[in-house]
Design brief:
Blueprint: H1 6-16, H2 20-29, H3 34-47, H4 49-52, E1 59-67, E2 70-78, H5 81-84, H6 87-103, H7 108-113, H8 123-135, E3 140-148, E4 150-156, E5 161-169, H9 173-190, H10 202-217, H11 227-245, E6 251-252, E7 255-259, H12 260-271, E8 275-284, H13 296-304
Antiparallel strand pairs: 1-2, 2-3, 4-5, 5-8, 6-7
Helix pairs in contact: 1-2, 1-3, 2-3, 3-8, 6-8, 9-12, 10-11
Length: 305
């Protein structure tokens, strides 16, 4: 295994986009032969995809694509925001979204087995090549939802949050698009965990009521109040829980004199029809993914070893 020069390492780094230590090892393993070193790195890039999968991917893109009456909300994660902003990742995410629209896979694993939209390779093969040879980061297709019907969507801040809204209406998609987008923007901004009060589990409300009663028991101002008055106060506070946590009961951000439901009803009346929000799905990039905080000194030490 011969020595290689700094100039050779820099040349290989420039032509492949691979890190210094990997380039050094590739040149040493191939006696300084540049072409063989490039081939060596290409093979290694594919071989190390499984190893990369252990690294936290909490950046990435949330995208929404609607084609006629079919739409998809999709999250693809990368390790860095730099990678997420490359054309390679953006094109991949768009192709995956179109694959979901066209093939209607049951889940992420089924999606990976499908031929990618506009290509001849499977989604899994394209993902492996992209992660191992171009981006050199862990890339994860994390989740998606596919909807059919009258749809509207909103993407916030270049893909940090995405929302898709489904509407039941006799009006056209074009007529209700602005209403749907406003509802999606409301969801993006305030992140209500439920669409309407009927969606809130009974045990959640029971627990909320229990907390409210316990709080009143600790409040000296409540000590002299009759039980029936306390009960009314408790129910009023439960009502506030609904108004804060159910999307349709929240104050509308563009006009807080209206609830979101009130806004939808007002706009439907103007359009001469009815509009019912039947489903809202919100993805926030990286939510629930544990981000690994690397220690730079430790990382350098590992590379030297």
């Amino acid at each position: 295994m011969g020595k290689v020069s700094v100039a050779e390492i820099k040349e290989l780094m420039k032509s492949t986009g691979v890190g210094m230590m990997d380039c050094k090892k590739a040149l040493e393993a191939n006696e300084g032969d540049m072409d063989k070193a490039i081939e060596f790195l290409r093979e290694k890039g594919l071989a190390t995809q499984a190893k990369k999968s252990g690294r936290a991917a909490a950046e990435g893109i949330v995208t929404a694509v609607v084609n006629g009456n079919v739409g998809v909300l999709l999250e693809v994660n990368t390790e860095t925001d730099f990678a997420a902003n490359t054309d390679d990742i953006k094109n991949f995410v768009n192709a995956v979204a179109n694959t979901i629209i066209e093939k209607n896979p049951a889940d992420v694993e089924a999606l990976k087995a499908e031929t990618i939209s506009g290509g001849t390779s499977t989604v899994a093969d394209v993902l492996t090549e992209l992660a191992g040879m171009k981006i050199r980061e862990n890339i994860v297709i994390r989740r998606f939802v596919r909807m059919e019907g009258v749809l509207a969507s909103y993407i916030h801040n270049g893909g940090s949050i995405g929302v898709m809204v489904k509407l039941d209406t006799e009006l056209s998609a074009e007529q209700v698009s602005s209403v749907g987008k406003d509802v999606a923007m409301q969801s993006a901004a305030l992140n209500a965990p439920y669409l309407k009060r009927e969606d809130v589990p009974a045990e959640v409300i029971d627990k909320e009521r229990e907390i409210i009663i316990a709080q009143m028991a600790e409040d000296p101002k409540m000590a002299s109040k009759p039980e029936q008055v306390k009960a009314k106060i408790a129910e009023g506070k439960v009502g506030k829980y609904y108004s804060e946590n159910c999307l349709l009961e929240q104050a509308f951000v563009k006009d807080d004199k209206l609830t979101v439901q009130g806004y939808v009803d007002t706009e439907a009346k103007k359009l001469g029809g009815t509009i019912t929000v039947t489903d809202v799905v919100r993805f926030e990039r990286g939510e629930g993914v544990e981000k690994k905080e690397d220690n730079l000194a430790d990382e350098v030490a590992k590379m030297i070893k």
